[in-house]
Amino acid sequence: MDIQVVYDQKIVKLLSRSWLFNFVPFLDSVFIAGSLALGNIHKNSDFDVVIRTADKRLYTSRFFCLLLFSLFNWRRGIDSPRDGFCFNCFVAGNGQLILEPRNKYGRQLSDNLMPIEVFKSYAAKNLEKLLIGKSGVFLEKFLKHWQLRRINKNLRGFIINDNSRIILNDSRAEVCLYSKDILK
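and the corresponding structure tokens:
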């Protein structure tokens, strides 16, 4: 199959599913990254995305993003990379969107990020209003603690090597591993 046809089919599928981002609270912007942004796509490519969230709400936004896309079965899994969203990079506030700047591939990815238009839904706006004060701060701390424990537990099944990127702090949550690096 022609690569342009595959690219067009992938873009149509990604955009037809991107409406779900409208329901994620504290989400500021979404960018297409990876093979789709670079144009070197194949029929089994997933949808790599970089998410920018509101400042001090990274783990809340990440939680709702993963939850919603999992409910629709639109999240990439280790055994099913095809047509799933790969949420391996969340950046809070005005954090740098640069991916893996230490090498040429990372700089090329960062230079080719493609924005997806997101319109915040009424439900997401109301949830944000509900979580503005102390309850939102508490939820963010709880979700950060819970997600970091889950990530660390899940990392035990992977071989961490030079191709891996793991950055987990208040301004960036980036976990990029490769399924071929799974321990047998």
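(Above: one complete record from the training split.) The mean pLDDT is 86.
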